[in-house]
Amino acid sequence: MNELGNLSCIGSGSDQSIENCFLTLHERVGRVGSQRLTLFSGLSSVFSLHGVLPGGGVSVKKIPLGVTVRKIEFIDDATVSSPEHPLYAVLISRELEGDQSHLNDDGISLEETRRIHDEKEAVKARRQVEADLGGFDVEQEWVEEIERDDCFHIDMNVGGAPPIPKTAYALWIVDASNDWSVIDSFELGEFEHGMAMKVMTLTNVADEKATTVVTDTAPSSSLFITVGTAIVDQDGEDVNSKGRILLFEVKTNVVRAGSSEPITELNLAYEKNILLGPVTSLSCLSCDGINRIVVGAGAEITVEQWGEGKLTQVGFFHANMQVQDVKMFKTFLILSDAYDSLHFLVWRESDKSLTLLAKDYEPTPVYAAGMISRGASMAFACHDDRENLQFFQYAPGDPEARGGNKLVCRADVHLGMQTVSLESHWCRSSLLIHSATPNSTLAALKQQDSLFGRIDDDQRFGVHFGTSDGGFGAVLPLSEQVYWRLTALQSVMSNALESSCALSHRAWRLYRRTPRRGGCRSNDRKKGVIDGELISKFCDLRMTDQEDLASAIGSTVELIMDNILELNCASMII
Asked: Poorest-confidence range of 52-56, 60-64, 313-317, 361-365?
């Protein structure tokens, strides 16, 4: 199947710089009638050892690194990364075995060990007698420190102290053009866990109190790889967890001895200890030409400003329990609390403050949050521990908003799968998704139709996600006309089609309430979400069944197929 349109002809190329190249000539798909010529560099990467061909001309290659990749992001800077040498920042972890052989011999003889043990037993018995005579509980009055030799006894006859599993975290810089080789790396501490990573540009803002000369020049900016960590002491939960913010600079002006090619190195420019808790979220806030870093640590959100070689806190907001993630658009923030749903904030540059506009008052444990939009309207998607998806809107004029302090729930659905990330993508039209040259196609469509790209359906952003069981899904906004057409089709298909094990499609997609105390949501479910899995079965039905279902809702098969095609194209992210 060819998704690029009708194939007119195919021929081999004669370019000596590209081996096994070939040319294809396609017809234009859409209203603009023109042909396009495409040059392919061969299929060697597709049919390689780790290559896969999923379709649509996209080649997916598996890169075995031998470690667990926690975060990966492209370094989008021309001074560091180039098309010939694309560089990526990768936060990885590896499993190690910690050696405990030093515990086999503590330097104390067997007689001394017995004597110490007898002394401790005598002290414990004396305390118990005093507690019985005094009429109090020894466990409440006496607090005894637990020592390691009280927890276990090492028997050398069975091999001594066993190794314990450990996890080591590191930051890598890899070159995708050189078989994803590691250029440079930075190892984190022994009890330090990498939680967040972000490549961002921070503005170097001078101190307003120390600066008295006013200049018209814009402040300089620097590219950093920011890493947020969590430090858990060797004693575990006996002490509070802390975190760190690490700022790395990527330098390419280092020349290796005996070679004229510059190499790239990581340089730790700055580190800051965070006592509020582990750093779970890092984001870049841009306002009035100044880029700042938004840090989520524990139950606090802090806005840090880079200047004079250090980070300075200029704003904060206190959440209820634990900051899970922060999503941003312009100067607005969506805070997802691990136990207290969503908070909608705004950054005010005038007084440098984070102000709470509205929140959801349900005690919902949030696993992931995202944003979808269509035209001028925007909604916030929330995925919880019950595998539900809820969609909220900030509507101060709505009576359900309690004067604008509450996020209004517009729709809900039971997803039935668990995910930890909702990422936004632009919903492309079928005229663009099936084009080999989308930039020129978009220009031609705007020239042909002056209104193309201005209506709400051309300005849509959906969310996509991967599930813990290996699935992939997307949530897309629909126009009102398409929504009601597919709602009627969904209702008819749920009654007409035979379901597996006689289970109900409607009951499966109903919202599951949280069992936590304090839940104040009523049993009324908003619904408002189309089940794309059920609707897509329409394409696999016989022609007679399609016509019967289409006539039952007062539509045509062609119109429904066009709507399903647009949904499939809008859900593509590559």
From this structure: 52-56
Q: Coil, helix or strand for 304? A: strand
pLDDT at 382 over 70: yes
- For residues 211-240, give the mean pLDDT: 76
Q: Residues 498, 502, 506, CA angle at the centre, nearest 5°?
A: 85
pLDDT reading at 51 higher than 60: no
Q: Assess whether pLDDT exceeds 90 at residue 244.
A: yes
3-state secondary structure 80-132: CCCCCCCEEEEEEEEEEEECCHHHCCCCCCHHHHHHHHHHHHHHHHHHHHHHH
Report the distance separating Cα 405 and Cα 408, nearest Å: 9
Give 406's DSSP letter.
B
Report which DSSP code applies to 535. H
Secondary structure, 3-state, 181-229: EEEEEEECCCCEEEEEEEEEEEECCCCCCCCCCCCCCCCCEEEEEEEEE
State the residue for tokens 């349900």: 362
Contacting residues for 479 by C-beta, under 8 A, at least 6 apart: 374, 456, 457
| H/E run at residue 568 | helix 557-570
Instruction: From 68, 573, 531, 87, select the one nearest 370 (Cα to Cα).
Output: 573
Distance in angstroms (rounded) separating the CA atoms of residues 101 and 495: 67
Residues 315, 301: Cα–Cα separation, whole Å: 8
- Give me the mean pLDDT over the 309-323 stretch: 90
CA 565 vs CA 121, 157, 458, 482, 549: distances in Å: 78, 69, 15, 12, 18
494-499 contacts, C-beta under 8 A, 24 or more apart: 494/534, 496/545, 496/548, 496/549, 497/534, 497/537
Token pair 């975190």 is at which residue?
243
Lowest pLDDT segment from 156-165, 251-260, 403-412, 425-434: 251-260
Q: Is 458 helix (H, G, I), strand (E, B) or coil?
A: helix
Whether the per-residue pLDDT at 50 is higher than 60: the answer is no
